[in-house]
Predict the structure of Citramalate synthase.
Amino acid sequence: MTTDSSHQLWIYDTTLRDGTQREGLSVSIEDKLRIARELDRLGIPFIEGGWPGANPKDVQFFWQLQEEPLTQAEIVAFCSTRRPHVKASEDPMLQAILAAGTRWVTIFGKSWDLHVTEGLKTSLEENLEMISDTIAYLRSSGRRVIYDAEHWFDGYKQNPNYALQTLQTATDAGAEWLVLCDTNGGTLPHEISQIVGDVLKAMPLHTQLGIHTHNDADTAVANALAAVREGASMVQGTINGYGERCGNANLCSLIPNLQLKLGYNCLPKDRITQLTQASRLISEVVNLAPDEHAAFVGRSAFAHKGGIHVSAVERNPLTYEHIQPDKVGNSRRIVISEQAGLSNVIAKARTFGIELDKQNPAAKQILQRLKELESQGYQFEAAEASFDLLMREALGKRQQLFTIHGFQVHCDLVQGRVSYCSNAQATVKLTVNGQNILEAAEGNGPVAALDAALRKALVNFYPQIAEFELTDYKVRILDEYSGTSAKTRVLVECRNNFQRWTTVGVSTNILEASYHAVVEGLEYGLLLHSTPVLSN
Amino acid sequence: MTTDSSHQLWIYDTTLRDGTQREGLSVSIEDKLRIARELDRLGIPFIEGGWPGANPKDVQFFWQLQEEPLTQAEIVAFCSTRRPHVKASEDPMLQAILAAGTRWVTIFGKSWDLHVTEGLKTSLEENLEMISDTIAYLRSSGRRVIYDAEHWFDGYKQNPNYALQTLQTATDAGAEWLVLCDTNGGTLPHEISQIVGDVLKAMPLHTQLGIHTHNDADTAVANALAAVREGASMVQGTINGYGERCGNANLCSLIPNLQLKLGYNCLPKDRITQLTQASRLISEVVNLAPDEHAAFVGRSAFAHKGGIHVSAVERNPLTYEHIQPDKVGNSRRIVISEQAGLSNVIAKARTFGIELDKQNPAAKQILQRLKELESQGYQFEAAEASFDLLMREALGKRQQLFTIHGFQVHCDLVQGRVSYCSNAQATVKLTVNGQNILEAAEGNGPVAALDAALRKALVNFYPQIAEFELTDYKVRILDEYSGTSAKTRVLVECRNNFQRWTTVGVSTNILEASYHAVVEGLEYGLLLHSTPVLSN
């Protein structure tokens, strides 16, 4: 293993663009911003944000980042080369990419002659012109350019000379990186090695190559590794391998392979330990169940079954584990006896600014409660406000602002020939400041009705509640084989004018799960007003 | 691509042994027999059935196969070398493996000196003795032997001379195959290439090597490919990559890579087209949801999104697909999405066996309805049954099996000092075969109650409804800015004994959205019984 500090690799994340092509994955602007900030925090140097010329949602995303920029990462706007036979300066798509206001842009163009003549229906010369004109125009507008050579490997196999001409054209026009894309995803590692080696021989010295692979042959990670070993210095991929068809190269596998096994620098040393958390948080944001068997970051990645094996693992972990799990922020797990560690809780409390001692009975109490709730399906990774409330409770610092005695919800729907008429009502009963209150409200759904009734009941006592907004509401079914009787986990995100917070509720009854999350969301917002902030 | 018929590779399936180590996977003897017969039908030459010395269930499994043998495959019994300091002929574990009555047995032994001294707590010499004595005894009892060299790659890195001695010992004792196992799963492809090459140089000519890899570095498939390219001629893996931690090398990826891309013979030509079906059937038998994004066999593996792209794919598939999907028994799928054009609708209809003409007013009607529903937040990518119903409707082929007039749902929760009591009831009103029915039911959540009431109302008319199961229920909030008033999209997956189907519902009221999806799920299941199948 080498640890030569000159082994710098540039990680380029495309979760927000290519990752969102995954069937069944859809994200809001808020989701995209949250993911971008998480990737920034993780120390990813390049984050591809989207294609502002093709998607109005992406236009707004880039605007919002102009107002509140990322701290370290370069946010990159993505776009194709200009259309055939128009000037780059007159193509509205390129105006949109300039309006995104990023320092870096990625332009993708055709490498495969067949895609030029059959897909674009233009000449091979015009394609070179499109690459050159587009990149030169963006350079003259002050942008730095990464060039994605689409369908590179298939194109090179069919017509290597033309494929190389497209790269040379991009370099001559001012592209600083040439990224070889295996767009159809079927290339095997030995072919990648061969072709990347060929390209480096054919191109001028100091050409910077990148690699972008897909998992259609189930070798996306190995393909990227093969390219890096030949000399590629930028690696494109997505968190959790999200992407069209079989997905993109998974950065959660690539980064530890490159950094911990091959000695390249990808992320700052203190950040790679946050990889597992980032993987799980992002899977929550996009509302997909995390892959428990994922390499490095999956819940089962370092799971050991009980017995002699376990004590052997504990005596000498490296004889049974390919890396130490904490190097990527994951943990060893003994499958039979679920042993969540006290040190985990203490580390977690520290992230909320609370110093707990191992001897403090509150620490044990938090751990026990945590295990109890997790076995019921609670999950606090994306619901830190609920975890904060749990800690306050154990430490005797959870102020009782109101007591709820119960609720009722009623819904009905009359189906006519053309239209429906549906209606939801909720009633809540609670005590605030010694006063008993019964309040009812309507809503266009049962959860909205419940939320409205709670607010009506509380607003006279806590007028600041009028400022809270419920900004997101996510539902996940935990044991999907039980169908509609399955357990439901609800995440509710609220905000006031200053911050956002997320709470969680679990039940077989979706309304009960929602109720718990909504109530904690309101409670936490009120506590933020009345006591020092513990989390954000 | 070579198709030299001398390129014979031996596929060795260990789904029934190593695959069942996957956390959350458990199988009965019946399940194991069903899987073994499916693998036999697929043409897999070696099927590892289990460890009869360690597991009474496996003893019985082998007995049952003696009574009703497989047609072509060799069923293999698995066992460790004998214990230290006993004779092989007196080790009851080896008696159990002989009693399994297989022609072939696989014996695993230690390659890594540290595992001998620390794990087995015996001497390096005794470990060699254990390998030699065990294999020689089994050979003298008429068995053919495959030797699995456990922890091979890590062991070789630490002490190559000793590791090679273990292999030489196994060969000398009569093992016909030496299988190099990456037990901890962290080795990278270039290391595999290097070490397999070293071994072939060090061992006698005509030594037959096998490769057994795990996916802890997310490179299991590439690792096996690297070994084969160096000269290994047996490949061990599991269907769907099932296995401990991050799983084993996935045979559903390896077989097509080896056979269709590298030209090796693995399965008979007419069998590889059954790979997708085998993958899905086995996932059903082990009761795990299929990975929709799996390479080659996943439902999304050949999915294409909208517009110009689709007509380009149909004109010239190999410019957008790394292999033809039907070569592995999968199919191209046109994803019905926001950008759907008329050509998409027509292509999609074709996959349901319906030929639509561009001039057919039904085609335009379907497209219009699709766009209308999509703008309301419907999404048919994952809800093909709902799309099928929509097409039937436009074509006048949607049979009216029942008419629902409305529903009512009531939920209440009383919050006590310690526990909650929550309750959900639903009432539905419908007409079936001219009869008006009012039916009520309870459930542990409002959707379960609604589902139960609908089934109670329908089961007397359509008894087959008792066979349907709701297997998955997914909820997504669409416009999160509206918080709990947001639009909700619900996907419901049902199955009967033969197939699965998914339906969708959208509303601001989560109960109404669920209701629509559940009703369409029941309707579609009934139509599958009463009319020719349009989709699967």
